[in-house]
Amino acid sequence: xxxxxxxxxxxxxxxxxxxxxxxxxxxxxxxxxxxxxxxxxxxxxxxxxxxxxxxxxxxxxxxxxxxxxxxxxxxxxxxxxxxxxxxxxxxxxxxxxxxxxxxxxxxxxxxxxxxxxxxxxxxxxxxxxxxxxxxxxxxxxxxxxxxxxxxxxxxxxxxxxxxxxxxxxxxxxxxxxxxxxxxxxxxxxxxxxxxxxxxxxxxxxxxxxxxxxxxxxxxxxxxxxxxxxxxxxxxxxxxxxxxxxxxxxxxxxxxxxxxxxxxxxxxxxxxxxxxxxxxxxxxxxxxxxxxxxxxxxxxxxxxxxxxxxxxxxxxxxxxxxxxxxxxxxxxxxxxxxxxxxxxxxxxxxxxxxxxxxxxxxxxxxxxxxxxxxxxxxxxxxxxxxxxxxxxxxxxxxxxxxxxxxxxxxxxxxxxxxxxxxxxxxxxxxxxxxxxxxxxxxxxxxxxxxxxxxxxxxxxxxxxxxxxxxxxxxxxxxxxxxxxxxxxxxxxxxxxxxxxxxxxxxxxxxxxxxxxxxxxxxxxxxxxxxxxxxxxxxxxxxxxxxxxxxxxxxxxxxxxxxxxxxxxxxxxxxxxxxxxxxxxxxxxxxxxxxxxxxxxxxxxxxxxxxxxxxxxxxxxxxxxxxxxxxxxxxxxxxxxxxxxxxxxxxxxxxxxxxxxxxxxxxxxxxxxxxxxxxxxxxxxxxxxxxxxxxxxxxxxxxxxxxxxxxxxxxxxxxxxxxxxxxxxxxxxxxxxxxxxxxxxxxxxxxxxxxxxxxxxxxxxxxxxxxxxxxxx
Length: 775
Prior knowledge:
5 domains; disordered C terminus
């Protein structure tokens, strides 16, 4: 990729000289055109989204107007001075931005008082933040659960609120993004109550239609600044396929070296040459494993080098995260194996290379990770190391699928009634809801209020709706959908807390016998107490890693609606999805060779939700020439493609929905494909799929049939989140099966031509598996 030629600009005249001097002190003498344009819009009172590439200086675009305003006491309606709120999707990013603000404003004395307010903030510091900080850095979770419900204690801050910065706003997508959109509407409502109307400044990675997504997120008209004028050195992007090993897999298939081991070797080679590198990988275990292998290899070359490589992931204690971030900034660390926590905008200037272990699922994430290198204007290297699965294999052999296609759109739906309802309750608990609030929360609000009254959550008195319960209304919903108390990982011999793991991941990662890696040390899990949410571990050195195996099944609880499609049937109703971790494999670290399997006795986890499903008969299978040998692959392929196309018909995201395909389902007694909402109680996506099923499945069939690949690819039937490794899949069988199914669709159910197939956008990592799961 050639270097970008930046175009210089000048700061808008209205920006105070002291601010420009501070910026120049920070090392930037002149802005680039997009930075100056964004600052100008913000100072004019326009909400603005800056959607330019990684390392394009978006933080400067919003910090200049924020600092300029905070230094000008005349902006405040009281003696406190103007205030600003910064929202980041991760704690690490908020802490990093606080450091940047302190450096930027240092020449100006104490006029700018930045402070982080999140779950790690000590209670003794929180009162100071509320009373004296004028630039508060937090996250949507803390805004939802901590700040808005206690708005009376934040009245002085909210009364003076001039700017709200929403950083990395492209990460607010799917159901998570819809929740954040309603949290921001609650914030705007309270600000209006206290007499302020803040300007929103949003920063996004390159995305399709950023102003549209930003408008949905904030509920305000937003000006788009997307013409990237920043300079950048040349980025060399390599696609790397690990070599074949002598091992054989199922049915004698050759096995490639693991992407984890290959990435660790590349990280080692780069560190030996003094190349500052970050290696990205999806899983926490993978990040630890890469760092351990690299440290062992480096110790063979130079023992001092082993200390200059580490892992960075969620679940670390706050002080551990801060120490790693500081070591990376200072250059003490040469290499870091990280999860996506470092993808989201942390300033790691000076990096020379980025390794990406496995396709991250979307082109937007791929470019965001690759952009971490070369942030100081120098040339850089990015390497995508393919995993041994069909999707990654396709990409390394078809680079045009990565480099010749645009990034995905950011998909969210703030009007989703399943998301809106709990936020209306939270808003009513903050201040009674009035008819004047209906427009703010969207067109679905008026219809939902009577339902909330009937459920005895809200009560109407005179012209306002009030929260009726003793419990906190904000606790009705978890905006990230994680659910459950985090499991604490405790060293058995000392009682020392090593870290935490999300409740949803505990069964698969800290079960009895699991190998747990923490900052280069290896531990064995001795016991997992689900009642107390504690996993006890002891340090050990097993010559293997562990991988959990699970099963997923789906049961029909109630069929609300059923429509005949010829011999087939289309149904909508309530289902229960059951997932259970049943065993774990022990694998050699480098080769991935399976050493053995151990059974586990863990309770199943259930999700009651809503689903749409369709069935076909034996006669239809015969007509479609789908025999039993290819039936599983044909159903599986149709399931994947239909999930990928559903965002065209329901405002959802691939990560918001799950699927199961079964050659003979015990409830329907027929081959069946289910698509379900990946959220308790449903989120409205399956219902929308049912009502548009004719057009939706017609588009699905066309997407598969029109794809130029031979046996299936990420553009048609392969899924980036398939729990079965995209196996089995049968492209031609899926086309014939859908063709036969659609013969029986009533003509009125297929309005107009099918839309063109596009890939679903990125979304929150909601564990809604896709794949054939036979009970």
